[in-house]
Amino acid sequence: MQLFLVAVLPLTVLLLAVTFGSLSLHHRAMRSLVGDRNLRAVQAAAGSLNQEVTHLGEILEILSFQASEPGDLNRLLSEQSKQLARFTGGVAILGPERQILASNNDPLFDRLWDEEGWKKVSLELTQIEAGQAIYSQTFDSGDQIFAYAAVRNERGNSLVGVFSPAVLIRDGLKSIAEIEPLTAVVVDQDYTVLYRKGSLGAEESIVGHPGIADGLSGESGITYLPTRAGEHVVTYSPVPPLGWALMIEESWEDVASPLLRLTQFAPLVLIPTLVLSLVALWFALRQIVQPLQALQAKTEDLAQGNFNSIRQPVGGVPEIRLLQSALEHMAKELKAAQESLHTYIGALTAGVENERRNLARELHDDTLQAIIGLNQQSQIARMRNQNPEVEKTLDQMIKLGRQTIVNLRRMVRGLRPIYLEDLGLVTAIEMLATEAERPSNLDVHFKLNGLERRLKPDVEMALYRISQEAVSNVARHAGAANAWIELTFHPDHVTLVIRDDGKGFHVPTDSANFARQGHYGLLGLYERAELIGAQISISSNPGEGTTITTHLQDR
Length: 555
Prior knowledge:
Layout: H1 2-64, H2 73-79, E1 90-94, E2 100-103, H3 106-112, H4 115-126, E3 134-135, E4 139-140, E5 145-152, E6 158-163, H5 165-172, H6 174-177, E7 183-187, E8 193-197, H7 212-216, E9 221-227, E10 230-239, E11 244-251, H8 252-269, H9 271-303, H10 318-384, H11 388-415, H12 418-423, H13 425-435, E12 443-449, H14 457-478, E13 482-489, E14 493-500, H15 513-516, H16 520-531, E15 535-540, E16 546-553
Parallel strand pairs: 12-13
Antiparallel strand pairs: 1-2, 1-6, 3-5, 4-5, 5-6, 7-8, 7-11, 9-10, 10-11, 13-14, 14-16, 15-16
C-alpha cells in the first residue's frame, strides 16, 4: 500500500496528467498544422488562378500590337485561333469609336453588350496606358457567367476577350480538386459563387461565411469556425486581378483523430522509454541539434561572404567545436585567397585596359596612318595612270583601303573608347548604342535619367565595359529585336540597366556557377562590378528576355 500510494498512484496521476495534457497540446498543434497547410494550399491555388488570369491578359497584350491595320484584323483572329481558344466567349477588336471591327463570335458579342456596354469598356480602356490589360467583374449572359479582359493599342483599337470563369477556375484549381473532404469556394465581388466543391455545412450563407469578405477585401489568412460536426479550419486568399476570393474549409479533427487516439495509449505503455527518450532528446537538442543548426546558419553566411560570422562559438559536443574551428581556419584561408584573387583580377583588368590602350594607339598612330597614306598614294597613282586595266586595279585597292580604314577605326574605338575619355560615360554609351557591331535587326535604345555628372575614370570604364559586354551578349546569344540601355544618375548613386526582349535563359543561383555553365561573359560583368564596389543582378527566364542591373553608390 505504501508503495502504491507513494510510487504507483502518483506516477499514475502524473501519467494521466501528461496524457491528457499532451492530448490537448496535440489538439492545438494539429489544429495549427492543418491551418498552416491549408493556408499554403489556398495561397498556392490563388496564385495559380492569378497566373491563369494574367496569362489571358498577356495574350491580349501581345496580340494588341499586331491589331494595327484594319485589313489584318480578321486574319489575326483566324491565325491566332489556338492562342485565343482560352477565350471561350469569343474575341473582338473594337475601333476608336467603339465599333466592332472584327470578332470570332459576333452573335455572342451582340448579345452580351449594347452600345452603352461597349462605351463602358472603351471608357475603362482610355483610363490606362496602351498595352496594359484590364479585367472586368463577372456578368451573367443569361445562361452562363462570363468576364472579359481588354487591351488598347497605340492606334486606339481595343482587343476584348470574353472568358468563362468556370473554365479558368477549373484549370487553376487542379491542385486541390481531388482532395477529399476539402470544401473550396470561389466568389466574386457580388458574392456570386463561381466555383464550389463540397458543402459549407452549417454556414451555407456565402455573404456571412467567415473568410469570404476578408478575401474579397484583399486579405489572406486563417480563421476557425465551430460547427455541429466539430471545428473547421477556414483559409482564404484573394485573386487580385479580378477581385475574386478563394476560400478553403476543412475539419481539422478528421485529419488529427487517428493520431490523437494513438497518443492516448502510447504514454501508458512506454513510460520508461518516454522518460529516457526525453532525456536523450533534450541532450541531443541542446548539445547536437541546436549547435549544428547554428553552425549551418554560420556556414551559409560564410558561403555568402560573411567571414566573421563563423568566429562566434556555437557550443555543443567537442566534435562540433572542432568542426567549427576547422571551418574558421578555412574561412581565414578563403578570405585571404579571395583578397588575393580580387587584387589579381584588378591588376589583370588594369593590364588588359593598358594593353588595349597601347594597341589602339599603335593601330591609330602607325597602322591606320600608313594605310591612309597608302590609300592617298593609290589615288595619286590613279590620277596619273593612263592604262584602263591598271586603273581598275587601283580602284579596287582604293576601295579596299577605305574599308580597311573604317574597320581599323571601329577596332580602335572598341579597344579605346575615346568618347569615354573626352566626353564622358553618357556620350560613350550613346555612341555604343549607335555604333555597336550587331545584327541589322537589333535596335539598341539609350535613355538617360537624372543630371549627368562625370565619375572616376575606372568607374566610367567599368560601366562602359559592362554595357559593351551586355550588348555584345544580346547580339550573339539573345536573338532579340530590341535592347535598352538606361543610365540613371541619382544624388548618391548611379544605376545602369540593360535589358532585351530576347529568348532569355535560366540564371544560375550562384555567380560561381557561371563559369561551369559557360557564361564567361556574365562572370566578367560580376568581376568588373566587384572591382568598383558595385552590385550587379541578372534576372531572366526562358522566353521573357534578360535584365542586367548595376547599382553603384557614389557619395
